[in-house]
Amino acid sequence: MVEVLGAYSRMSSDLGRVGSLLARSAVTSPSRDVSAGQKQVRLSHANQLVLVESYRDGATLVALARQFGIHKRTAAEILARHGVPRRGGRVALDLDEIAHRYEGGESLAQLGKQFGVDAETIRTAMIRAGIPTRPRRGR
């Protein structure tokens, strides 16, 4: 009877070691991998208020996203949480200035950065206004 108890008593110490190994591995392994080129940024309440006020003062979602290092969808969600209505999505652009600078050699991408919108927004506005655009590269 002593031999049987001795074999089983050793098993409980092995289980204890296995349990501690499992506990350690659970603590050190991440629940999800965010290192695949994407970093998670959480804005403090104070920064969220700055974002809201900047938007109310006329800043675009794209500009705010760049300023705070977040995705524009995240900026939109912050505005929604603070009860801020979104603007109509249309951006007032000075098409005369855009046409003049585009004819002077600036690219759609450069103009987009200057006006705080995507290059495709500039291109679409120019086409709607009848302003000729250069052929795209590779087409």
Question: Can you describe this structure?
Answer:
This protein is mainly alpha-helical and 139 residues long. Among the domains are: 45-81; 90-139, Arc Repressor Mutant, subunit A, CATH 1.10.10. Helix content is 60%, strand content 0%. Helix 3 packs across helix 4 and helix 6 (108-115) crosses helix 7. The longest helix is centred in the first third of the chain and has 27 residues, at 2-28. The chain is elongated. It starts with a helix and ends in an 11-residue tail after the last helix.
Spell out the blueprint of helices and strands:
Elements: H1 2-28, H2 45-56, H3 61-68, H4 72-81, H5 95-103, H6 108-115, H7 119-128
Helix pairs in contact: 3-4, 6-7
Summary keywords:
elongated, Arc Repressor Mutant, subunit A, 7 helices, mainly alpha, single chain, 139 residues
- The CATH class assignment of the domain at 90-139 is Mainly Alpha
End-to-end Cα distance, whole Å, is: 87 Å
| Mean pLDDT across all amino acids | 79
Helix/strand order, N-terminal first: HHHHHHH
β content, as a range?
under 5%
Low-confidence stretches: 25-34
Q: So what's the overall shape? A: elongated
Instruction: Decide which structural class fits the backbone.
Output: mainly alpha
The rounded Rg comes to: 29 Å
Number of helices: 7
* Helical amount: 55-70%
- Most strands sheet: none
Extended strand count:
0
From the coordinates shown, what is the CATH architecture of the domain at 90-139? Orthogonal Bundle
CATH topology grouping of the domain at 90-139: Arc Repressor Mutant, subunit A
